[in-house]
Amino acid sequence: MVLKRLAVYLKPFIPRMSLGFCIKVGGTLVELAIPWILSYIIDDLIPLGEIAPVCLWGGLMLVCSLLAWVGNITANRMASAVARDCTRQIRHDLFRKISYLSERRVDEFSIPSLITRMTSDTYVLHQTVGMIQRLGVRAPILLIGGVIVTLTLDPVLTLIMVATLPVVGAITFVVSRRGARLFRLVQKASDAMLRVVRENAVGVRVIKALSKSEYERNRFKRVNDELTEKERTAEKTMALINPVMSLLLNLGIVAVIVVGGVRVHNGTTEIGKIIAFMNLFTIVLNALMAINRMFTMLSRAAASSARVLEVLDTPIELYETEPKFSFLPENAPHIAFRDVTFRYPRGSFAVRDLNFELKRGETLGIIGATGSGKSTIIRALMRYYDVSGGAIEIDGVDIRDYATTDLRAKFGVVFQNDTLFKDTIRENIRLGRNLSDEELLEAARRAQALGFIEEQGGLDAPVAIKGANLSGGQKQRLLVARALAGNPEILVLDDSSSALDYKTDSLLREEIRLHYGDATKIIVAQRVSSIMHAEKILVLENGRVIGMGTHDELMASCPLYREIGESQIGDRSVSYDEPAGKEAVRA
Ligand SMILES: Nc1ncnc2c1ncn2[C@@H]1O[C@H](COP(=O)(O)OP(=O)(O)OP(=O)(O)O)[C@@H](O)[C@H]1O
Question: What residue stretches are annotated with the ABC transporter domain (predicted)?
Answer without folding.
Answer: 335-567
